[in-house]
Specification:
The protein folds into 2 domains: 63 residues, Orthogonal Bundle (Arc Repressor Mutant, subunit A), CATH 1.10.10; 141 residues, Four Helix Bundle (Hemerythrin (Met), subunit A), CATH 1.20.120. The chain contains 9 helices and 3 strands. The protein has a 3-stranded antiparallel β-sheet with strand order 1-3-2. The longest helix has 25 residues.
Length: 221
């Protein structure tokens, strides 16, 4: 999840756009990434695209096929479970640190992030899936806010990278669990404000594991 930057390079802009298109499913798992087609779609050079796709290969979002080019990384049940387990491990650790060190500014970030997420969850619950990308963007912001006082930039960046891969699975399956997920987010917020890391970890584990099973239940992997 990267923000717009007026000073970013062409390569960085192309990377950000292609990465977002992979994460949100506009470029489907297993899709061939033809350089000539991408050059037109993203208005950039073949050499820049090679740089970008190699970078996305390092991110685990693109697969290099030797002389045959590139394709969007495939999805699998085992990969989703592994990503979810890693996300839980990182987020639980960062969450505990954040609860210990969070101040009033952290609480304000958390409340703001939850408000935006709750509004998007209301839209999704009403059946309006046109806001699915905003829903996942605010979901990411809320979970990043939870750990934003952990004191480790590297930990937050690593969590963000893993969360993005988890997000891609949710977008492929459009896996919204309805009011139960919204309730879990409220419970996480309450536990955070009370600095109750034990309860928060329990809710987080349920939240992630139920999200995995719901995505698998859609039968799209």
């Amino acid at each position: 999840m990267r923000q717009e930057n007026a000073n970013e390079t062409v390569a960085e802009s192309s990377y950000r756009h292609i990465r977002a298109d992979i994460l949100f499913g506009r470029l489907a798992p297993g899709q061939k990434l033809r350089l000539e087609h991408l050059k037109v779609a993203y208005e950039t050079s073949v050499s820049t695209l090679r740089e970008v796709l190699n970078r996305l290969t390092s991110d685990g979002l693109v697969v290099a096929e030797g002389q045959r080019g590139f394709e969007v990384a495939p999805v699998s049940v085992s990969d989703l479970r592994e990503i979810a387990a890693l996300r839980l491990l990182l987020e639980e650790h960062a969450l505990e640190q954040s609860f210990q060190q969070g101040d009033v500014e952290w609480e304000a970030r958390l409340l703001s992030a939850h408000y935006k997420l709750a509004r998007m969850e209301e839209a999704m619950a009403s059946g309006d899936t046109s806001k699915a990308e905003d829903w996942k963007r605010y979901d990411w912001e809320f979970h990043q806010a939870l750990i934003s006082a952990c004191g480790s930039r590297l930990l937050m960046e690593t969590h963000s990278a893993v969360f993005d891969k988890y997000l891609r699975y949710q977008m492929v399956a459009l896996s919204y669990r309805g009011n139960v997920a919204a309730k879990e987010h409220r419970q996480l917020l309450e536990a955070a404000l009370q600095r109750d890391s034990k309860t928060a970890k329990s809710i987080l584990q349920l939240h992630i594991e139920a999200g995995v099973e719901h995505a698998l239940g859609k039968g799209l992997l």
